[in-house]
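BUG: 3D viewer hangs when loading the predicted structure for this chain

Environment: internal workstation, default settings.
Expected: structure renders.
Actual: progress bar stalls at 90%.

Input used:
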Amino acid sequence: MRVETTQSVAATETLAAEIGGAFQGGEVVLLTGELGSGKTAFVRGLARGIGVDPEQVASPTFVLLTAHRGRLTLHHADLYRLNGGGDDAELGLEELPGPRGVLAIEWAERLSYLPWSRVLRVGLEHAGGDVRRVRIEEEAS
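Structure tokens produced before the viewer hung:
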């Protein structure tokens, strides 16, 4: 497990851009953290790292799933509004990200199941002001 502390939104995005820059396709990133903890900022950084304009990335809370094309395609899901009980199964997330895509899921704790054999778990926590504690852990099943 890797733990980083970022001092600003820009620093959180830069950390994620470095991680995304190493992606080759097929990665799944599961993001957790309370409201305002920096999940969407982290996804904007991933976008930059994989060649997607980060300005295109906003919290897709009402859309649930968006796709942005770049060097790799970023599939961005936000499960905040799901009620549980398998609602996520209707989104078809298990078919993503594909070999030329990256799937980033905000509010990943609301997933009813994990169909992927490898995931990158990213937990974001408020640590006062704009400071965030970012826990990054690769998990294989």
